[in-house]
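[recover] target loaded
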């Protein structure tokens, strides 16, 4: 590994004054235009199950769960974001979506600033942020609250990385107070989703490519590095160990839950890589094993052809970012939010380099000399920008929006029907559903979250059969007839 080039591109600390507000306005308008149709997507069953899980936790776990890093609690940071919305707006999908969209937009601006500090240049930084605004390959993240974990993890991951890079970019080594703040942001990311386990490795790559190479093979120098520039890396690795203890060692840890146990095989790696690149390249269907290998070879060649720290860093970032999900079955789409940010950083820097190189060649042509290299490069960048926006808009209209409009109509109908009953549920009462439209636990989730009475007992006859005496003792009895919920008592 080599340190950064001797003459890095400026970080953009002193841009022309109009640029920052102009960039902010453009990105916000662009994001809002794509996000406008996502507000009214319905709440599918998985979202209700997740919200109900946090609502049913004891109060102290709802509050302190994110601070209990050793605990096997399931992604407790989400409770801090979902429960206040539930308390203020009930099961209103728009309220949950606004919260998620605000976090996504905040991450866009964090990514823009991070890209500048990584020496990508202003054009590449703007394009990176633009891709982060909306990427149809991960469209679920804009429509479904069940991906709040990816949204939160991405926000805190980028915030922690940006905080660290901003300190190191000024030539300083984080003190222990700053390390503590970094660990707090990293803990929030870990409590959101396990994707944040790669953050110490990402910091290590940053140190290798932007500062002196890490002396891995010389124990004395390595110890000195760990006490100095590497203290954040070491502290983050220790935090990972404590976090993993709760997810692996505990009998009810996440790794023991069906669907979360890794499948260690090359077949799983190939399957993940093929589907991941298909999503990142907007559903290109011709990725196979040969295509994946050729793509990685091309990326490493581009990254190491010249001493460009930003390309080497983003290439390795993209390589390690998916590791927590790479060996899990069915992880693609919205789960690729953090890898997508690394991918966007790499491809935008490469594209701007190609545009500049092609502009330099074309500027020598007689008919283009008056346009100049800068003008030709600007035209190429704008053309690519128009193509990207148009393709995202088309795919969103044809695939993402229709699917979101039709999501779980039965669940949404049941929520609306339950809201329509003029009930003031008494404490310590019992509610029975003789029949319901689901045959799962969804009706229990809906009843609990609509009435939000923690002492209410909800029983579903289709899941737990009851005697006539038990039904007679219930305070509220509902049935499902001809597509409608009917209150029997």
């Amino acid at each position: 590994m080599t340190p950064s080039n001797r003459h890095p591109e400026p970080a953009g600390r002193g841009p022309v004054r109009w640029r920052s507000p102009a960039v902010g306005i453009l990105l916000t308008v662009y994001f809002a235009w794509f996000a406008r149709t996502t507000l009214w997507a319905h709440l599918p069953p998985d979202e209700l199950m997740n919200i109900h899980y946090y609502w049913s936790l004891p109060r102290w776990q709802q509050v302190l769960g994110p601070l209990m890093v050793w605990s096997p609690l399931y992604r407790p940071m989400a409770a801090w974001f979902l429960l206040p919305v539930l308390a203020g707006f009930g099961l209103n999908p728009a309220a949950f979506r606004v919260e998620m969209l605000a976090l996504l937009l905040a991450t866009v601006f964090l990514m823009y600033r991070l890209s500048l500090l990584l020496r990508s240049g202003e054009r590449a930084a703007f394009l990176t942020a633009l891709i982060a605004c909306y990427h149809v390959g991960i469209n679920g993240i804009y429509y479904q609250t069940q991906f709040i974990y990816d949204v939160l993890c991405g926000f805190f991951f980028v915030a922690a990385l940006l905080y660290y890079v901003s300190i190191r970019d000024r030539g300083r080594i984080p003190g222990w107070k700053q390390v503590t703040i970094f660990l707090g942001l990293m803990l929030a990311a870990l409590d959101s989703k396990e994707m944040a386990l790669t953050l110490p490795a990402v910091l290590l790559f940053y140190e290798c490519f932007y500062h002196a190479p890490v002396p891995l093979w010389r124990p004395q120098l390595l110890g000195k590095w760990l006490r100095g520039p590497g203290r954040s890396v070491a502290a983050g690795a220790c935090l990972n160990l404590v976090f993993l203890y709760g997810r692996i060692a505990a009998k009810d840890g996440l790794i023991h839950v069906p669907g979360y146990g890794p499948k260690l095989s090359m077949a799983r790696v190939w399957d993940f890589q093929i589907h991941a690149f298909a999503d990142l390249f907007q559903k290109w269907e011709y990725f196979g094993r040969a295509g994946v290998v050729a793509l990685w070879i091309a990326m490493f060649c581009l990254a190491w052809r010249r001493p460009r720290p930003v390309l080497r860093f983003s290439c390795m970032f993209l390589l390690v970012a998916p590791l927590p999900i790479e060996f899990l079955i069915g992880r693609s789409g919205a789960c690729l939010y953090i890898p997508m940010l690394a991918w966007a950083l790499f491809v935008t820097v490469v594209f701007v380099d190609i545009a500049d190189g092609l502009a330099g060649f074309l500027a020598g042509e007689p008919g283009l000399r008056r346009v100049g290299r800068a003008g030709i490069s600007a035209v190429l960048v704008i053309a690519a920008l128009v193509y990207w926006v148009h393709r995202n808009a088309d795919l969103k209209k044809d695939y993402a929006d229709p699917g979101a409009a039709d999501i779980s109509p039965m669940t949404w109908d049941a929520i609306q029907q339950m809201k329509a009953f003029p009930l003031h549920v008494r404490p310590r009462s019992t509610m029975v559903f003789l029949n319901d439209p689901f045959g799962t636990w969804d009706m229990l989730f809906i009843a609990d979250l609509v009435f939000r009475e923690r002492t209410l007992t909800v029983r579903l006859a289709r899941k737990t059969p009851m005697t006539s005496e038990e039904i007679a003792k219930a305070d509220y009895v509902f049935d499902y007839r001809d597509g409608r919920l009917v209150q029997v008592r």
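[recover] notes: The longest strand covers residues 476-481.
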